[in-house]
Amino acid sequence: MKSSLENHKYIDKSTQMLFNEKDTFKVFYFNNLSSEIELYKHQLNNNYIQIYFCNNNECTVAFNFEHCATNLEAGNSTMVYFKDEKMNILFNIPPKSELIAVLISIEYFHSLFSIEGNFLFNFNNFKVGKPIIEPKQISPTIQFILNQLTSKQINKALRPVYIKGKVYELLSYYFNTANENETEKENCPYIANEETVSKIKHAKEIIIEEMINPPSLENLAKKVGLNIKKLKTDFKDFYGVPVFTFLLNYKMELAKKLLQEQQLNVNEIAAQLGYSTSSHFIAAFKRKYKTTPKQYAKS
User: Fold this and answer.
1) What local confidence, expressed as pLDDT, does residue 69 receive?
2) Cα–Cα nearest to 275, from 257, 290, 296, 254
3) Contact predicate 213/276, CB 8 Å
4) In the chain, which end has fewer C-beta atoms inside a 10 angstrom radius, N or C?
5) What is d(CA 213, CA 209) in angstroms, rounded to the nearest whole number?
6) 292 pLDDT tier (thresholds 50, 70, 90)
7) Of 13-27, 196-210, 248-262, which gets the smallest average pLDDT?
8) Distance, CA of 199 to CA of 227 (rounded, Å)
9) Per-residue pLDDT averaged across 95-99, rounded?
10) How confident is the model over 14-52, as pLDDT tens digits?
11) Euclidean distance between CA atoms 246 and 223, whole angstroms
């Protein structure tokens, strides 16, 4: 990457923002389904506590200059605070990377938390305005909430309320200072344990890698070491939708990305997604988005 912001290739895309409410918080979601690195920029004009969650692969978030950056691997998060009110945040999202960013205004953060609290946060630095970068592993409970946060199953009109509620839930778990192992065992009603979470994630990876000819539920369950009932139940709990609904949604999102790039025609995209005929792909796309692939590409 270049060493300064001049003539950078970062682009500002508001479509990556899930939620933006003045004086409270912003939520971004980056999911790179392409084969190229995607670069984004967002300009801040106020002070924010910034929390980043990397779901897949790895990604980099830089602040004003690319040498001042935090690198995140899958399953990890980082909380960031700079005293600067104005800054450019630069997102470097490699292929197959997924990043969620929650930015909370400093005033709103104070209204939510008492600075006397014993949080996983260096409040001595916070008080004097020193930079803070604190990494933290993503727990199964937080991972579950992140999956809900990015789910598109909620009615569009209700999504702002839904996202706001999920952010509150996310923050309550993120700043919880109880023994995390005990917390997960006693309070997490969603997934049995980290081993199960790992198997569910593996199932997702398999159906994406083999989407042209995906395994049956029975074979998928055998591959990840779960019985069919547990695979179906826990996958839906974790990702918000059944296994093959998740795969269909993934294919349709990838189709949109390929249509935007305009490098492949409809027949080639259909084949790449595993459809036996382009008519089946067109029908699936139209059911999902109420328009045909060609019409979407033109628009």
Assistant:
1) 86
2) 254
3) no
4) C
5) 9
6) very high
7) 13-27
8) 11
9) 92
10) 447 888 888 889 999 999 988 889 999 898 888 888 999
11) 18
DSSP 210: T
Other CB atoms within 10 Å distance of the CB of residue 273: 21
Burial of 55 (0-12, 13-18, 19+ CB in 10 A): buried
Torsion of CA 258, 26, 120, 170, to 10 degrees: -70
Exposure of 232 in the CB half-sphere (CA atoms within 13 A) = 7
CB neighbourhood size of 258 (10 A): 21
Contact 52, 80 (CB under 8 A): yes
pLDDT digits (tens, 9 = 90+) for 117-171: 444 455 555 554 567 788 989 988 898 889 888 877 677 788 889 989 999 999 9
Q: Please name the residues in contact with 121: beta carbons below 8 A apart, sequence gap of 6 or more.
A: 79, 132, 134, 175
Q: DSSP string spanning 8-60?
A: ---B--GGGEEEE-TTSEEEEEEE--SSS-EEEEEEE-S-EEEEEEEEESEEE
| DSSP designation for 158 | G
Q: Helices (DSSP H) in the chain: which residue ranges?
A: 106-112, 123-128, 140-149, 159-174, 180-187, 194-209, 217-224, 228-239, 243-261, 266-272, 278-289, 293-298
Q: Structure pTM?
A: 0.69
Helices 228-239 and 194-209, packing angle to 10 deg: 90
